């Protein structure tokens, strides 16, 4: 039978990646995906623009998964992910508000 410190350590090892959450970034990714979908439905985004934006969102998601993989998201990793999300948000805005429209 495990003593209390051993049980705590075993719990942290198993549940470590669960505690490495980025709830702010997760919500932001969801909101940005909604913005892309809305741009597709309204015709503000062309097919190629949509493809590029979706690929970029997937890259952000992969980078987030990589940061979470060791169970801890450091402040440096969090800042880098936020910067990537900021860049992606600007891309979405610029693509939705340019002169191009889906035919």
Order of helices and strands: HHHH
Our measurement of the CA-to-CA distance between the termini, rounded to an integer number of angstroms, reads 68 Å
Report the structural category: mainly alpha
What is the percent of helical residues? over 70%
The outline comes out as elongated
Main sheet record:
none
The helix tally amounts to 4
Share of residues in strands = under 5%
- Please state the CA-atom Rg, rounded to the nearest Å: 19 Å
What is the total tally of β strands?
A: 0
Stretches where pLDDT is under 50 for at least 5 consecutive residues are: none
Task: Write up this protein.
The chain is mainly alpha-helical and 103 residues long. Helices cover 78% and strands 0% of the residues. The chain has helices at 4-19, 23-42, 47-68, 75-96. Helix 2 (23-42) packs antiparallel against helix 3 (47-68), helix 2 (23-42) runs parallel beside helix 4 (75-96) and helix 3 (47-68) packs antiparallel against helix 4 (75-96). The longest helix has 22 residues, at 47-68. It is elongated and about 65 Å long.
């Amino acid at each position: 039978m495990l003593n209390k410190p051993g049980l705590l350590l075993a719990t942290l090892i198993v549940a470590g990646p669960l505690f490495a959450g980025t709830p702010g970034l997760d919500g932001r990714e969801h909101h940005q995906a909604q913005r892309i979908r809305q741009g597709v439905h309204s015709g503000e985004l062309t097919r190629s623009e949509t493809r590029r934006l979706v690929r970029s969102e997937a890259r952000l998601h992969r980078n987030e998964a990589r940061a979470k993989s060791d169970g801890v998201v450091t402040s440096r990793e969090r800042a880098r992910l936020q910067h990537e999300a900021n860049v992606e948000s600007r891309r979405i805005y610029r693509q939705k508000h340019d002169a191009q429209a889906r035919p």
